Amino acid sequence: MTEEAAQSHHGATRVQVQVSDCSAEDAEAVFSGLNSVFTSDRSRDDAPRPAEGERPIVWTATADVAQEPAEAEPLPLTAPVTVTLQGGRWAVDRLHAGLASVFSVQRVGTTAGDQEREAQLRLVTRPTAA
Q: 3: burial class by Cβ within 10 Å (0-12, 13-18, 19+)?
């Protein structure tokens, strides 16, 4: 059994995605990018709402990375976005790679447990060839 099949068999293909430290418009761009490469529980018409007042806000989705990531076009962001991924090691790495096809991704930090990994990423607009 391949590693991918083993991960899928054990249900370790879901990754919790948390988007924070950004505008609602940038959060929407991140979720659009996520939905362009993988399946998620966040529908395309479920636009993030802006925070009320000065309170910080975190938007969430759960992505399923069982399928190969789809080809995706880079999406613009107005500012850097912080994304936290939580799930199995293989699934988190696969989601990271999928997001890297849409944005420039810098891994800010990682915490690993027995079976799970948490990765904090910083996303910025990916440069395109001129």
A: exposed
Give buried/exposed letters for 101-126 (b at 16+ CB in 10 A, else e): bbbebeeeeeeeeeebbbbbbbbebb
- pTM of structure: 0.85
Is residue 41's pLDDT more than 90?
yes
The residue among 107, 19, 21 whose CA lies nearest residue 63 is: 19
Q: Among 57, 60, 26, which residue's Cα sits nearest to residue 40?
A: 60
Alpha carbon distance 20, 116 (integer Å): 21
- Which residues, in sequence order, are CB contacts of 55 under 8 Å at separation 6+? none
By the 8 A CB rule, do 38 and 63 touch? yes
